[in-house]
Each structure stands twice: as C-alpha cells, then as structure tokens.
Amino acid sequence: MAREILKVENITKRFGGLLALDHVSFYVNEGEILGLIGPNGAGKTTMFNVITGVYKPEEGRVYFKGRDITGMKPHSIARLGISRTHQIVKPFGDLTVLENTMIGALFGPRHDTITEDEAREIALSVLEFVGLRDKAEMPARLLNIQEKKRLELARALAQEPELLLLDEVLAGLNPSEVAKMIKLLRKVRDEKKITMIMIEHVMHAVMNLADRIVVLHFGRLIAQGTPEEVATNPEVVAAYLGDPEMALKFVKRLRR
Amino acid sequence: MAPGKGLMLAFTRKGFYLSLALLAVFIVIGVLFWYGRIGANIPGYAMDAMYYIGIALSMAIIMSYAGYVSFGHVVFYGVGGWTLVYTFNRLASESGVLSFLHGHSYAILVVGTLLGMALAVLLAVTVGAAVLRLRGAFFAIATIGLDYVILYLESLYATGGSDYMYIGYERFLEKTYFLYLAGLILTVLIAYIIRVSKFGYGLAAIREDEDAAEVLGVNTYRYKVQAFAIAAAMAALWGSLSSWRTSGIFPDFFSLSKSVDMIVMNVIGGLGTFNGPIIGSLIYYVIIKATQLYAKDLAYIIVGAIVIIVVSVFPEGVAGLIKSKYRQLREYLI
Ligand SMILES: Nc1ncnc2c1ncn2[C@@H]1O[C@H](COP(=O)(O)OP(=O)(O)O)[C@@H](O)[C@H]1O
Ligand SMILES: [Mg+2]
C-alpha cells in the first residue's frame, strides 16, 4: 500500500474577513504527483504557505511523514525535506546562479553535514539537469523569466527534498518553453523520484502529469480524484474548467 | 559547513590576495616605524586608515553581508572604549576586583578589550532579539534607539569625573601601531571567513530575499542575531583600540556621526562583497583627510557633497560599478 507522505487536515486560514482556506483536507502518497487546481484566488498558494510554515493556520494540522509540523518555522520544515518554488520568483538577484543553487543545497535536509564542495557539486549537477549549467556564473537577476523559473526549480531540487511543491512553474512561459518544462518535470519524477504537488493553470500539463487532482474553489475543496474524474465532475466544470467539451478533450488527450 | 579543504581553498582566492597586499603595506610601514626609518606621520595615517577599515568591516557584517543598516553601531564602539577606561581606572585599580592586573597596562588592555567585546555582544543579543524582527527602514529607525545608551554612558563620565575619561599609562606609539595591525588582521580574517563560509551564504540570502532564504532552510532570525553580535564585538574591539590610542574617551568619541561614517563607507564600497567595504573605507578616509588638510572649515560639507554625488552617480558603490562594467574583475571583490 502506498505510504502517505503528506496529510493536511481541516486547514482553515483567514486573512481578516477573508476565508482563504475553509476546512481543507487532502493527502499525498509517496511517489505521486498531486495536481492542485482552481481559479485565481482559490487559496492554492495559501495552502503552500501553510504547508511550508510561512502562514500559521487558524485551524487544522499538517502532517509530514506522520509527524505534526503545524506551526513549525519555515526553515525547520525545509530541513525536514519539503522544498518549494514560488509563483512570483524570488531569485537572490545579486548572487550568481550557482550561488543561488548552492544555498539550496547548503541549507536543505543535509545542512548539518554537507560541505561547501559537496554543495557546489550538487548545485552544478542540478543546474545541468535543469539546463542552466552555462548560466552558472551569471548574476541571477540577469536571467529571463523562463530561466528564473528554472532557477527556482534548481534551488529546490538542490535541497534533495522528499516533497516538492511547485507553484505555477509553467505560468508566463510560451508553448515551447512549457513543453520543455513539462519534460523537465517528468524527468524529476522519473529520475529523482520526488513526490510533487503542482499548482497549475496549464490544464493539459496538469492533466497529463498528475496522478490525482485536488480542486479548490473560494477556499473550499470541491473535488478530488483522478484527472478523468475531476475533468468530468460537473461542479469542477462549472466552477473552473468552464467548457465541458474542453474538459473532455483533456481527458481524451490523456487517454492517448 | 564542515571546515576543511573548502575553507583552505578560500584563502587562495584572488580577492583575498588583495587584502593580503594591503596588510603587507601596513606591516612594512610598521617595521620601518619600529626601526626608526620613518617618522610618526605615515604610521599615523596608516593607523587612521586601519581604524576606518576596522569599523567599516564591523558594520559590513550586518549591513553589507546581511543587508541590515544599523544607525546604532557606534554604541558598540562606545561600549568598547568605555569598558577599557573603566577596566583601567576601576576594575584594575589598586582597590578593584582585578587589582592583580594593576600596573600591567598591556594585560589590562587585553582584559578590558575582551570585557568590552563581551558587553557589546550581550547588548547586541538583547537588543537584536527585539529589533531584528523588524525589516528595512523600521529596523534602521529602531537602532537609533540604541544611541540612547550612548547618552547614558556620556552621563556616567559627566558625573564620574576624569576617571571615566583618561587612562594613564606609558605610551609607545610603535607598540600601539602593532596593536592596531593585530586588530586589523583579526578583523579582516573574521570578516573574510564569514563572507566565504556557509554562514556568509546564509547572510547573503537574507540580504537578497529574506523570505526566500527562510523557506530554503536558512534560520534567518538566528543568523541575523549572530551577525549583529559579531559586528558588535568587532566594533567594540575598535572602540577599545581607539581609546587606547587616544588615552581615553572624550565627548567626540561617542559621536553619532561615527555610525554614519560606517554606513557611508559601506555604501561607497557597495554592498555584498568582501573587498567593497575595504575599498570604500580607503576612499572615504582619503576624502576626509584631504578635505581636512586643504579645506578645514568646510571639510564635512565637502565630504557630504561628495557622498551625495557618489551615491547619486554610483548607487551601488564601487563593487556595483565593477560588477556591471568590469565583470572580469568581479572575482577580486569576492
Ligand atoms: N498575505 C495575505 N494577506 C491578505 N490576503 C491574502 C494574503 N495572501 C493571500 N490572500 C488572499 O487569499 C486568497 C487566496 O489567495 P491565493 O492563495 O494566493 O490564491 P491562488 O494561489 O489560488 O490564486 C486571495 O483572495 C488573496 O487575495
Ligand atoms: Mg497562487
């Protein structure tokens, strides 16, 4: 039986009067890719912030490998093996691409024992992996948006996490860049065997990559299941996917 | 980081040779001075320069490396100077708790300096625990509160008489020169090791994007407090050395403009590199010395104008200029 790597239980998060997350529960199994979808403002990024300890939920608990991590500091959670990318990229602009990635390696789960030389090696191989090896010595601020997204991914991968949270890594990329990034994410799954939760608006990508999908709408979880189940769920179609024809096409493409 | 090969390699980087060359110049001047080959003028200038580099590097740990501008840094310098005087005249007096040190001025210097550094660390950790939860301008403003400690120290010596001001000992300028040199070598080494270590990477991450740093596993709060404490200890060291050189402290010693000096040197040098603050302090010292020599009354107005111009034209300082225009020289900055 698949082991649960992450479980969120009854998470409620308010911003003043706004209920950003309303008693949301779901789980992720080891080795799986979970898609997290929903309209803008649904609370997806907020969920990542709750999981990574950036926000404290008013209610509910977060369990990572069975351990209650609710309320822990973000740096402690990162060190347990949860890494993320940011929807709005946050490169260390003045530092080189290599330094950015090394920092990921130096402060991840192996922070206690890793040497700088090891961190550099890991960073270089991760940069090779994401296709930024030739930009290693460039200050991160000079990268274009597509490269900055790859750097977000590189920094997270350099931590050698067990769970990777991807916040719209495809947004703002043109179709050929999207295709490249999807290929990369496949590689992460197949070669690095890292469990992932991906927030994504690019439907064909998430329908293709995800094993299961969770749908948020105004802070509430309105559906979860396989891509087929979700794409044909009337409530999801009405709230988010819009066109049922379109939704079916995703599924068809998936079947091919 | 487990120290070892990586750290050893760090000392062979080109940028560090630049600092070694600078230290070598100071050593040569010291040796010539010791053997009476040169008068006291050049060593005097050299000591001024060492002082500026020392206080600039102490500020650099928190400002240039971690990105937090402190207007209260002179307090730690003041604590260092004050503690040395207090150690001399009270603790190590014939009736003080350290009376066994009485008459051994160099031993008192060492003990007094260490005490001052410890006191500065204590103050920095206490105050830092509160103010380091603030960011940006709010942090900077909060550190102004630290300056009130200075007013307290000033009131102490105002009421305490000259005991709180002067230290009487037999002075050898040559020895003082080498004390400064020792202080500088220590300061440069500490700053450099921090800059190239895992700790330095963490501070750089904090400077560039503190939220991203925290999410990547950097214990941002602990790192900031540690950086603040180290910066404070280094400032106290220079406060102590300065009060030794001038045989005591005097109202100007606590001048709040010293915090500004430290900030300006880092701004001129540019944030984020090891050699930036050193270059910035040398430039600043030359400007100050030149204006004092050639335009005494207008010195500070001219310095102020130069600072405004420099910051307007090169907002990222010398380091920023080199990084954008002379990329191949980047490795010399570290
Ligand atoms: N720090 C915050 N302060 C106030 N409101 C916030 C904050 N973060 C998110 N929100 C609000 O919470 C809701 C969910 O936001 P978010 O999680 O970013 O949505 P999504 O990522 O699904 O687009 C939005 O209405 C957003 O404006
Ligand atoms: Mg979002």
Please provide a written account of the structure:
The complex is a heterodimer of chains A (256) and B (334). Chain A is an alpha/beta fold. Chain A has ten helices and ten strands. Chain A has two domains: 176 residues, Rossmann fold; 72 residues, no CATH class. Helix content of chain A is 41%, strand content 24%. In chain A, the strands form two sheets. In chain A, strands 6-7-8-3-9-10 form a six-stranded mixed beta sheet, sandwiched between helices. Chain A has a four-stranded antiparallel beta sheet with strand order 2-1-4-5, covered by helices on one side. In chain A, helix 4 crosses helix 5. The model of chain A has no long low-confidence stretch (mean pLDDT 91). Chain B is mainly α and 334 residues long. Chain B has one domain. Chain B has 16 helices and no strands. In chain B, helix 3 crosses helix 12, helix 4 runs antiparallel to helix 5 and helix 4 packs across helix 11. The mean pLDDT of chain B is 86. The structure holds adenosine-5'-diphosphate (ADP) and magnesium ion. Adenosine-5'-diphosphate (ADP) binds next to strand 2 and helix 1 of chain A.
